[in-house]
Amino acid sequence: MNRPVTRWSRVAVVSVLAAVVVGVFVLAFTWPSVTSTVHAVPVVVTGEGPAAEALAQQLDTVASATFDVSRASTRDDAVAMIESREVLGAVVADESVPEVLTASANGVAASQVFTQLAAQLQGVFAQQLEAQGVAADAVPTIAVTDVVPLAATDARGSGLTALAFPLVIGGMIGGIAVSLLVAGVWRRLVAVLAYGVAVGVVVVAIGQGWFGILQGSPVLNGLAVGAALVSISAFIVGMTSLIGPPGIAVGAVLAMLVGNPISGAAQPVQFLPAPWGAVGQFLPPGAGATLLRDLSYFPAAPTWASWLVLAAWIALGVLLMTLGHFRSRAVLPAQDGLTPEAGRASAPAAG
C-alpha cells in the first residue's frame, strides 16, 4: 500500500517547527557566552593602613559594577578566602608594592580579570610614584600571584570545562536507556545506580588516571561523577514512569537546554546574567560541575551545598519512579472495567 502524500500545510508546519527547535538549541548554547559580563566578582583587599583604605575605596567607587569588594587583615587571610572560594582574587596592600592574587583553577576568564586589574593598578601606582619624583623605569612592578594554579596536565582548564558536557549527555543516555529497556521500579533504581557507579569509575580512570584532568581523591571524584549522572538519569526515569515517553523530553530539556548553559562550567557563575548563574547551581549540571572543580582544586571550599542539590534530584527521581509505579497499578485494574482478578479469571475464556 502506497503511503498517502503529505499535505502541504503539514510540510510547512514540520519545517517551521524543526527550525524553531534548531533556534532553541542555538539560543541555549550561545546566549550565556554572548550575554556574559564581568559583574560582582568577589575580591578582597588586605591591609589596615591608608593605602589599603584608598585602594579599597578606589575599587568600590571606580569598578563597583565589576567587583564586590570585601576586606581582610592579612595576605594569609586573603589566600584562605581564595582557597575556600569565598572570593575569586585579592589585592594585597600590606606592603609598599601592591600584589594581586588570583586562582587560575577558577578558569581562564577569572584569571584574565585579575591580570587586567593588575595592569590598571600598575598604571595608577606608576602615576603616584612619578608624581613623587620616582623615575618611570624605577617604578616597581605589581606582581600577579596564582595561589591555586591549574595542574600542568590541564594547564588552561579546558579539560575540566570539556568534561562537563559529556556528563550531562551521559546522564541523559542512562535515563533514556533505563526508561526504555528496564521495567519495575526497583530494577530501574538499581540500574540507574549501577550505571552511575560504572560511569564514575570509567570517567575517573580516563579523566584522572589517563589525562590528569581531575585532581584530588579519585574516590570522591568518582562519587561526584556518579551522583551527577544519577541525578539526571533518575529524574528522566522518574518523569517517564509518571507521564510516559514525554518524560524523556522533559528531563532532556531541563538538563541540556536549561541546566547545562547556566552551569558555570565554562566560566564563573558571576559572569552569567543574574540570576541565572545562581539558579544553575540548583540544577544537576551546575552542582556537578562546581563539585568536581572544588574537589579537584579547592579542597578547603564547602561542598555540602552541591552534594545536597545532587542528592535532592536523586531523591526526586526515586519519588517520581515510585509515584509512577503506583499510578500504573491504579490505572491497570480500571481498564475495561476489570479488576486484576477478574481479568485473570476471564483470560482462559477469552482464549
Number of structural units classed as domains: 2
Strand order of the largest sheet: 2-1-3-4-5
Instruction: Name the structural class.
Output: alpha/beta
Give the SSE order as H and E letters: HEHEHEEHEHHHHHHHH
- Rg over CA atoms, rounded to whole Å, is 27 Å
Low-pLDDT runs of 5+ residues are 338-351
Please tally the helical runs, counting DSSP H or I stretches of 4 or more residues. 12
Strand content: 5-15%
Specify the biggest β-sheet: 5 strands, mixed
Kindly state the percentage of residues in helix.
55-70%
Number of beta strands: 5
Write down the overall mean pLDDT.
Answer: 87
Q: What is the general shape?
A: elongated
Ends apart, CA distance between termini: 32 Å
Write out key terms for the chains shown.
single chain; 5-stranded mixed β-sheet; 12 helices; 2 domains; elongated; 7% strand; 351 residues; alpha/beta; Rossmann fold
